Amino acid sequence: MSTTTVPGTLAAKPAARGWLHLPIIWAVLLAAPYWMPFVGGYDALASRIVIFGLAAMGLNLLLGFTGIMSFGQAAYFGLGAYGAGFVLRYWVHSTPLAILCGILFGTAAGVVFGALMMRRTGIYFAMLTIAFGQICYYIAYSWNSVTGGYDGLRGFTRAPLHFGSYVLDIRTNGLLFYYFVLAVFAISTGIMGVLLRSPLGRTLIALRENRVRARFLGIPVEQHVWISFILSTFFTSIAGALYALLNNFADPTALFYVISGNLVIMAVLGGMLNFWGPLIGAAVFVWLEDFISSQTVNWMSFIGVIFVVVVLFFPRGLLGFIRRRSA
Amino acid sequence: MSLLQVRGATKTFGSLVAVNDVTLSVEPGELRAIIGPNGAGKTTFFNLVTGFFPPSSGQIFLDGKDITQASAVDRIRMGMARTFQITQIFPELSTRENVQIAAETAMGFRMRPWLSRANRAAVAERIDETLVATRLTEQADRLVGELSHGDQRSAEIAMSLALKPRILLLDEPTAGMGEQETFQVAGLIRRLHKHTGYTIMLVEHDMRVVFNLADRIMVLTEGTLLAEGTPDEIAANPAVQAAYLGTAE
Ligand SMILES: Nc1ncnc2c1ncn2[C@@H]1O[C@H](COP(=O)(O)OP(=O)(O)OP(=O)(O)O)[C@@H](O)[C@H]1O
Ligand SMILES: [Mg+2]
């Protein structure tokens, strides 16, 4: 007979064990522009981290919470970027509309592609995610007249935000833009957290845990795979739109499978079973990329070594390890 | 009218006939046991009834309605629930969450991004009553994957009960259990049947459990129905004694 154990030590429940980490994460994020310079950072790098963090957290709805491998997430990141770019380049100079259009592009593709592959499982599903990702890449690459082809979509800038007569100049002020990115991140992750704690979120976790059981509780598995895929593309496309705003351009590399791989690495590095894991992974990844690539062109091999070490010794990711020790 | 009716169900895997032309009906409130040696086709028969895979031929009716073509999910919605010979649960979630997912799905909330206070209370009530019925209240907040084997099997039954099924199918509920646990699970099944009036169909190897609990017994050997009747009739049946009970001792 065993006695009491700590409940929920392994459960991938967002914030299941108290809210203590929330103020810490938000304090670190809010203060980022002020402490980042001490570790070689700057405003745009902070924005990059938060943006890739959001993209990887979106991907992690599939990986960590639904238990589905996806290696083509860059497609929705890139479509978000192009969607935002199209609005600014061809239509109106409005940041909110640019983000909305980015979401629309990425999520619409998620709806269509998701419907086409929701009945596939395992490696077949994963292969299809790559295939659809590459289709998007080649369209962006070849449709020169609209997308700018290899050079990317250029000649636009993000627009300042207007609140009545009050103007927030996120266009020229990198610090303000960071806080704008952080605000979008806060809303997005807030929605994500609420979803994961809802019945809908629990059915996704049920798929991760045991598909046979889920089906024999009356959960139509394919339909929920589709829903999960759409939600995941929704959040990743928000990040993609922000990425276009950050760079003031969108180019095909945002859709390339290398980005898909990077997002998977971020999620695994930080901890897929943890709500905030992918953000930590993104922070480590993006910072290392920036720091080591200024020292050597072989920065990817460093990431590779770190990745292998984490997978071998901390299979639950960096955050999973910290959490385990403190539990 | 019979609650469950199976007519001439047959399932072949290549040249193997795993279930061969089996016909049976289960009345409301009945506890039906299926026995037979290893590989007799008991689990395959369950799989046909619950829509795990379609039959090669034959028909299945629930409440007189032909459900032969219905998906597993549809059959669950129509009131079936089952457990598996190898426990199927959500190991990294708590016992309560396991039951919660079942309850929310059965109550039609599985797509909801939020629940009203009243709905949340209704879900909580169903979870609590299910945990009480299966005596898992004390294990509610533990990870179900960390429970004892017996409690994990009970948790799977709890998930099925949270669906409020009209017929409950249990595949070897006492498999791999010691004396004490077998006794507990048998007690649970008895309570569900006698007090709550559940219609139950179970596959079971433990003959004491079968002969104590069952209203009627069906004996399968090599996919075919060998005998069917009350426990007394089955115990007295020479064919059963020769083919099954004799060799089991
Ligand atoms: N999916 C399958 N594919 C191929 N053969 C199968 C499949 N499922 C079952 N069989 C075969 O069908 C026969 C009946 O198996 P089944 O699992 O139904 O027996 P059982 O009566 O439940 O046995 P046990 O008491 O060991 O659980 C066995 O020979 C088994 O190998
Ligand atoms: Mg069996």
Give the low-pLDDT segments of chain A.
Answer: 1-16
Q: Which word captures the global form of chain B? A: globular
Low-pLDDT regions of chain B: none
User: Mean of residue pLDDT of chain B?
Assistant: 93
- Sheet with the most strands, sense and barrel status of chain A: 2 strands, antiparallel
Task: Give the CATH architecture of chain A.
Answer: Orthogonal Bundle
Helical content class of chain B:
25-40%
The CATH superfamily name of the largest domain in chain B is P-loop containing nucleotide triphosphate hydrolases
Name the chain pair whose interface involves the most residues.
Answer: A-B, 33 and 38 residues
Category from helices, strands and their pairing of chain B: alpha/beta
> What's the architecture of the largest domain in chain B, going by CATH?
3-Layer(aba) Sandwich
What characteristic shape of chain A results from the CA principal axes? globular
Quick one: CATH class of chain A?
Mainly Alpha
